Fold this protein.
Amino acid sequence: MDVQAAAISLQNNNFVVVLVNMDMVTNSGEADMAIDALEPKFGQVPVVLMAQREDTSPVYYGNQDLVEALRDVPIDEMPWKSYSV
């Protein structure tokens, strides 16, 4: 399976932002399972899930410190690429 993701380094934290659909980030059980499944695929680096509202604004799910760090990062400046997981 391929996913769109961005490897990020902010405030001395390395993590991966993975693009998902809105249903995923609004269902904490599914989101937690997805994070648990994805982290080993990215070498145990923390994963934050991101969906986009209709106006393209981001909605994040994951570690609150990492989510807060992303608040000021424009999504079009993240280093997005396709990963096979």
Q: What stands out?
A: Strands lie at 2-10, 13-19, 47-52, 58-61, 80-84.
